[in-house]
Design brief:
Blueprint (H helix, E strand, L loop, with lengths): L1 H8 L7 E4 L21 E6 L2 E8 L4 H16 L10 H9 L5 E4 L2 H9 L15
Antiparallel strand pairs: 1-2, 2-3, 3-4
Length: 131
């Protein structure tokens, strides 16, 4: 579903558009939606066919977070090298207690994407080792 959205829809979102309620499978750090099982409290802003911002309520449940990380690790073991390994330090911090938080990703890199007509953030990222 997410791949279809990325390939068929994103480029068509010319006017500023907020896409909300992403599936849990593509939002491993986002809190589950309060009323819609299987979805998360997440939104992305699209403009001129590109993602300009990504925001979500952060997951603070260490048990749920571990399960999501372990599912990603299984995908990695099955050959999907883009999936991260289990982050034990992050899980340890969650187990100590984390207050409700939210994240918003918008910055100069996304503005540079727009100004240079770059299709992905990887094309303009300031740290090439992260590409």
């Amino acid at each position: 579903l997410n791949q279809c959205f990325e390939e068929l829809c994103e480029s068509q979102l010319i006017q500023p558009t907020f896409v909300t309620e992403y599936p849990k499978e593509v939002s491993p750090l986002a809190k589950p939606h309060r009323t819609k099982p299987g979805f998360t409290e997440r939104f992305e802003l699209f403009c001129v066919g590109r993602e300009m911002a990504n925001a979500f309520s952060e997951l603070t449940d260490p048990v749920d977070q571990r399960q999501r990380f372990e599912r990603q690790a299984q995908k990695r073991e099955a050959g999907d090298l883009e999936m991260p390994e289990v982050d034990e330090e992050f899980l340890s911090a969650l187990e100590q207690g984390m207050p409700p938080t939210g994240g918003l990703g918008i910055g100069i890199d996304r503005l540079v994407m727009l100004l240079t007509d770059s299709p992905t953030i990887k094309d303009v990222i300031a740290f090439p080792l992260l590409k």
